[in-house]
Structure formats: C-alpha cells, structure tokens
Amino acid sequence: MTRMMTAIGALLIAGTAQAQDGDVLLAMSWDEIVETARGGEVNVFMWGGADTINAYVSDHIGGILADEYDITLNRVPLADTAEAVNIVLGEVEAGAGMDAGAVDMIWINGENFRTMKQGDLVWCGYVDKLPNASLVDFENPAIANDFGVPVEGCEVPWSRVQFAFAHDTARTPEPPRSIPELLDWIEANPGRFTYPAPPDFTGAAFVRHVFTHAAGGADALVGPFDQEKFDAVAADTWEILNGIEPHLWREGVTYPTSITQLQQMFANQEVDLFFTYDPAEIGTAVENGIFPETAMSYGLSDGTLANTNYMAIPVNAANKAAAMVTQNLLLSGEAQLEKAQPEIWGAAAVIEPSRASAEVQEGFATLERHPSVVPVEELGQAALPELTPDWTRAIEDGWIRNVGN
C-alpha cells in the first residue's frame, strides 16, 4: 500500500507537459491523434491483485505502446478503484488544470463508473474515434450497460468475465452446484468454506448470489432500486448468512479480507471451495503451481453473475490522446487474442472475432482451453445480470451492518 501511494503521489506532483483538450482531440483525424500521443505517456490506474493481468498490461500492451508509438505506460496498482476516482474528484474540485490530471485511464467498475458519469468526471463522446471500436457489438446489452448504467460512449470495454466456483476433484469430487446445495454443504462441512468480507469486490459478489437466491431469482431484482423489495429480501439474506456463519472457517469469527487471501487458503487446503470473477484464474493458478492439477472451475445450475470490464478516461486526463491509443490497442484483434491465451490470462474476448482479420479469427478458432477452466459457453448458459449500483451498494452496506459486525 505504501509503494502504491508513493507512485500515486509522484504522478500527482509530476503532472505532465502535454495536457490535451478533449474537444480539440475530437476534431482531429485518428492519424493526428496518434501523432499527438507519440512520445508521451499514459498513467493507467487499475486493480493490481493479479500478476497475470499486471504482466499483460505492463509488458504486452506497454511493450507495443513503447515500440510502435513511443508511449510509456505507467501502471499504478490500486486496492480499490475508488482511490483513483477520489483523485480525479479532488483535482476537479480544487480547480486544477482541467486537462492536467494525474489519472489518464481507470479500470473501472459499475458503481464507480456511475459516480464519475453522474459527476461529469468521465470523458465521453470519443469512442467512435477508435478504429478498433468497429470490432465491438455495442448493441449487445451486456456491453451497452455497465451494472445497469448506460455506457453511452463514456468508457471502452476490454474484457468479459463470469463468476465461477472451483474445487479440487481429488478432495471434493462432488461440489455443491447451486446456492441451495452450497448452503446445505456448508452446514455439512463445518470450517471448510468462507468468503471475503464485503466491500471486497468478489466477496460482495458472493453475497449478491445469496441475495438473488433469497429473492427467488434475478428477474425479481432487475431494474431500479426498490427499498420495499430490498428490505424484504435483505431480511431473508441476513438470516441465511448469519445462519451459516458458525459453520464457516474459524466459525465465522473472522473473514478473509481479499480474494487473494482466499486463493491462498484454498491452495493451502484450509478451505475446500474457491470462487472468482475470472475462471481463467484457476488455469493460471494450476500452471503456476499454486493450485494442484486436480483443481477445476465450474458454474452453478441457478446461474452466476457475468459482466464486462471497462476502461474509462477521466474528464481532466492530461494524456487523453495516449489513453485513446491505449484503448484502441486493447480492442485490437491481436491484443484480444493474446489476452485469451490460457497461459497469458485466458480471459474472454470483448470483440466479435468474426469482425477481426482472418488470422485473428483462425487464432480464436484454434484457441485451446485450459483443462481446469470451465468453458465460457457452458457458463454463459446460466449467466445472471449484474444489479444496478443502488442495489449493490445497499447489499454491501447491509451485510456490514447485519452480518459483518
């Protein structure tokens, strides 16, 4: 954390000599935007908890930016996306140069995207300028909406994920495959399950799965926040989660603080089940010797949450042109194919491969899935929509007050 804050502080102090006005960029051709970006830098603020993702962005994407555009990519790791949003908010409220902000790009989640969009903190209207945006189906509701918030040209998708569970087939050959089965399994196997305490992103997602189960299914929660409905479902949810608490790891007296800690607990056989928003993580953990070769990811018969990952450019970003070049690169067929390689990341593409070059199409067609990773097609058959930020925030706050204390 200290090193992270040092890096952020250095960027805040250093600033940049290449502040760029958004309206001026929008009037340029793509070639002019690239030339404006050439020789500059881009400060990308993103969650830093996965070595594979960090390496993909810093080494692969950063390497191409350096070699082909003479752009330096500075990856600034975050524990919480809100840290980057607060930097942007502080700069804007302080009246600092509107095109001289320290944050050029943020790997953002739905709740923080809504905050930035509502506060006019995110730059919009530039996405059509990106040549590789033509590879994306922006009519797809899963891409056009971020946790129920219309994207409307204010952020760029770059990856897709879906929640999945994992078990060691050698130790737990028949894992629970639905939320009701899981709740029964927890009671029958005391001390062998736990989840990160919200507001950890993945832990909060697990709680939303239980909340959805208590509501009778995702259809009951789609749409704007409903306080009366929330109160009724929340009461059942807290009863369920408090009921299983004595059967959790360490009898629920304490919870892991992060998904990274839960991963290590599964690796150390302290718990028998793991879950993640990125099923490819299971294959990577096997390849790196963290998980045994008998580890296997799987979905639930009653569905798991699916969402799209996005990158946003703050309204006061100093290096907007370089951020645009970076986002365009992330959307390229080649970069999407590289990201999909199981030994690199194994993440699902956000583009339509059929719109890419013949070489890229062939690459996707022959892509080998890691044997420990559940097929994307299988997971997709039971994908649940993400709730709007009002719902997610209320569920997280409710858990903290009613279960975590």
From TrEMBL:
Organism phylogeny: Bacteria, Pseudomonadati, Pseudomonadota, Alphaproteobacteria, Rhodobacterales
One Pfam family per UniProt: SBP_bac_8
Name used for this protein in its record: Spermidine/putrescine transport system substrate-binding protein
Keyword field: Signal
Organism per entry: Limimaricola variabilis
Leader sequence residues: 1-19
